UniProtKB/TrEMBL annotation:
It is found in: Membrane. Keywords: Membrane, Transmembrane, Transmembrane helix. This is Putative cold-regulated 413 protein. Its main location: membrane. The lineage of its organism: Eukaryota, Viridiplantae, Streptophyta, Embryophyta, Tracheophyta.
Amino acid sequence: MWNKMNFQEEAVQVMNSDFKDLSEVASRLANHAIKFAGIGWGGSFFGFFAAVAAIYLLVLDRTNWKTNILTSLLIPYIFFSLPSFVFYVLRGEIGKWIALVAVVLRLFIPKHFPDWLELPGALILLIVVSPDLVASTFRNDLVGIIVCLVIACYLLQEHIRASGGFRNSFTKANGVSNSVGIILLLVYPVWALLTYFF
C-alpha cells in the first residue's frame, strides 16, 4: 500500500512537471506567434499605407499643389509596395480587363483618354504584364524594398531641392503636404528593412 501511495505522488509530480513544461512551451509559442504575426501585419499595413501615400502624391500632382518632382517614379513604388491581396486581384482577370480598356481607349480614342489616366494606366499595365520573376520574387524580397527606399529618398531629395531648401519644404503650404506624403513613403521600406534583417 505504501508503494502505491508513493507511486501516485510521483506520478502527480511528474504530471505537474510535464504540464508546467507544456504551459511554458505554449506560452513561448504564443509569444513568438504574436511577435511574428505583428511583424507581418506591420509590413502589410505599412505597405498599404505607403501605397495610399503614393496615390495621394499622384493625385496632388494633378491639382494646383503641383511640384517639380518626378511623380512617374511613384508607379514602380506602388508596384513594389502594394499589398499582395490587391496586387494579385489587379494581376488577375480584373486587371487584364482594365488594361485592355485602357489600351483600347489610348489607341483608338485618344481624345477621350484623359492625361490624368496615363500613370494609373501604366501601373495597371505594369502589374498585368510583369513577369513572375519581378511580380513574385523581386516584389517580396530585398530588391523590392531597396527599390522603394531609393525612390522615396530620391523623391524627398528632389522635393527639398525644388522647394528651395529643407525649411521651405516644410513651411510653404504646398510643400508641407508633399513633404508629409514623401516622408510617409519612407516608412514602409525602413520598416521592411528592419524586419528583413532583424
